[in-house]
Amino acid sequence: MNRLIKLISIMAFLLFTNVSFADSIKLAVTTSFNNSGLSDVLLPKIKSDIGLNIKLLVVGTGQALRLGAAGDVDAILVHSKRAEQKFIADGYGTHRREIMYNDFVILGPRFDPANVRHAESVEEALSFIKNASAPFISRGDDSGTHKMEVKLWDLSNFNPEKFGDWYKSVGAGMGASLNISSSMGAYTLSDRASWLNFKNKSELEILFADDKLLFNQYSFIPINPTRHKYVEYKMAEELENWLTSDTAKSMINGYKIDGQSLFNFNANQK
Predict the structure, then answer these.
(1) Least buried of 12, 141, 175, 189, by fewest C-beta within 10 Å?
(2) How much is the pTM?
């Protein structure tokens, strides 16, 4: 009898364990998405609606892509179009589905020593910072925000590798980079959502925004099951369907801080 009870207990444990794993999916997301607070709103609703437990791995876009390429996650939510397209072309992801967007902004101290608030383009804003040798904090972590920053310097005909001590690459996420910028009174590039949800603003404020080059698209990519047969591709599909639903649209567009929207839903129906 004792052996039978033990056997039943073991079978029940294994059954419970399998169900638990079957209902779980690993999703690599950007630090900017997580710092916005939107994940805290969406994840409980996703679990309620489709019974899916989502384990978030919060990293920069570059690291998310590497996790996806290794098959260590089932899907990724990132924001660097060129890198995403290469990821798909290399066969690591099945497709790229745009979900939502916001924009990047240049932050700096209110007294604005580089006169950035009077710039007429993002290239001019960066040239003002460079020419003034004003302190600038770069994430330096191969994230989507870092990739965008490097691209913008390049478009402005500058090479950060040749900058002086005023340019500091900190190798940190968005929240940590904002804290460093706040404590130093330095300029930095941030996505708008992370900034709006950031509590330690101190003397920082948005000094430049609304340039078309600062558009910031977030996209969902399921990992290719032909590369990694053990990934939860069907569940990634279920998650994608939810993220592109009317419910997701309402929640994403309705997520605001101090009356300001953090993201705009733009997913197309298949």
Answers:
(1) 12
(2) 0.86
- Rounded CA gap, 69 and 228, in Å? 9
In this structure, what token pair is assigned to residue 204? 């920082």
Question: To the nearest whole number, what is the mean pLDDT of the chain?
Answer: 92
Question: β-pairing, 24-30 with 75-78?
Answer: parallel
The residue that leads in pLDDT, 8 or 187, is 187
| Structural domain harbouring 181 | 103-214
Among residues 61, 77, 67, 35, the alpha carbon closest in space to that of 222 is found at 77
* Residue 239: closest CA among 252, 255, 220: 220
Number of domains in the chain: 2
Please report, for the domain that includes residue 153, its CATH number: 3.40.190.10
Q: What is the pLDDT of residues 140-150, one digit of tens each?
A: 999 999 999 99
Q: Dump pLDDT digits (tens) for 103-162.
A: 999 999 999 999 999 999 999 999 999 999 999 999 999 999 999 999 999 999 999 999
**Whether residue 225 sits in one domain with residue 204:** no
In a domain? residue 156: yes
